[in-house]
Amino acid sequence: MSKSLLAICITTLITLLATSAAADESVGLCTGTDSQKITCLNNKLEYLGIGTDANSKPLMEIEGANLIIHRASLSDGTGNMVVGDGHSWTSTTTNGFVSGYSNSITGYAACILGGYRNTASTSYATVVGGYYNTASDSYTTVAGGYYNAATNDYATVSGGGYNTASGQYSTAGGGAMNLASSSYSTAVGGYDNEATTNTYCIAVGGRGNTASGQYSIASGGYDNTASNEYASAFGGEMNLADASRSTCLGGYANWAAATNSVVSGGSTNKASGSASTVSGGYSNTATGAYDWWGGSACYCNVSGSSCWCTA
Question: Angle 73-140-102 (CA atoms, 0-180°, nearest 5)?
């Protein structure tokens, strides 16, 4: 291929760059008529190398120069870079990037880096790899995995499958079927965990755990719930911390039901007095403020001055 013919072939690219004479002159791009652009290009072909790669395929190289693809308008469907087959973009997609196979970008500066059947459907949305992932609100990001969705401003999903970050600034990652649906919430790892309803809640690992109180956390185990502000449920199964600053630590079907109450281990224990504690055992209940139950049936009164065990 002659240099003159090559110049004609890439004139279209230069035309995309030459959006206005004033703007082009400020960065030294070729402007004017097609003939003038070709003359200009001939003077710049020293930066363009043509040959074959290690696999004997045609190769074009730009050395000692920069390549700019852009469009000043925000909604005219140009300025996009498309790598690979089967991609789609709209007449208003501008200054976007898409690679991989059969991906779709929409809006301004949307970006998809590889993968299959991914969608970045609004301005500034980004998807990196994986398949059938969707970033559908401004500044959302999905990185890897499959069937993940970031659907509110600044939401992020990292890996795993069928995870959803639908709250503003929320994060979901790893595992599967996790949901972060409130603002600033986080649901990572495990399966079918939810950080929902109130802000800054966290669900980490395990299965079927729910953190719905503001600043609450549910971590590990199965079907545990932290449903009030600053509540915590760690490990075990079917434990519930539903009072402000209440805590359940492991065991089964335990309930921290009063402010600042704690149940640690055992089964079907309940701390219903303010700042009360149950430490293990079975079916124990601490009903008074500052009460403590321990073991199978040990009780201390509010002042801690006397303790007794029935077994």
Answer: 75
The per-residue pLDDT for range 273-293, each reduced to its tens digit, is: 999 999 999 999 999 899 888
Specify the pLDDT at position 82: 97
pLDDT of residue 70: 87
Q: Are 277 and 270 in contact (CB under 8 A)?
A: no
Q: How many helices (DSSP H) and strands (DSSP E) are in the chain? A: 4, 33
- Of 260, 227, 266, 265, which is closest to residue 246 (Cα–Cα)? 260
Q: Is 15 helix (H, G, I), strand (E, B) or coil?
A: helix
Q: What angle do CA 246, 207, 186 make, to 5 degrees?
A: 65
Helices (H), the chain: 3-9, 11-17, 21-27, 34-44
Domain ranges of the chain: 3-62, 73-144
Q: How many CA atoms lie within 13 A of 29 on its CB side?
A: 23
Q: If phi over 0 gives left and psi between -120 and 50 gives alpha, with beta otherwise, what is residue 117?
A: left
User: What whole-number distance in Å separates Cα of residue 171 and Cα of residue 193?
Assistant: 12
| Strand 298-300 versus strand 307-309 pairing type | antiparallel
**Confidence (pLDDT) at 306:** 46
pTM of the model: 0.84
Which portions of the chain are predicted below pLDDT 50? 1-9, 11-26, 304-306
Q: Is residue 238 within 8 Å of 252, Cβ to Cβ? A: yes
The half-sphere exposure of 84 on its side-chain side, counting CA atoms within 13 A, is 17
User: How far apart (Å, rounded) are the C-alpha atoms in residues 10 and 4?
Assistant: 10
- Rounded CA-CA distance 147/153 in Å is 19
C-alpha–C-alpha distance, residues 95 and 176, integer Å: 33
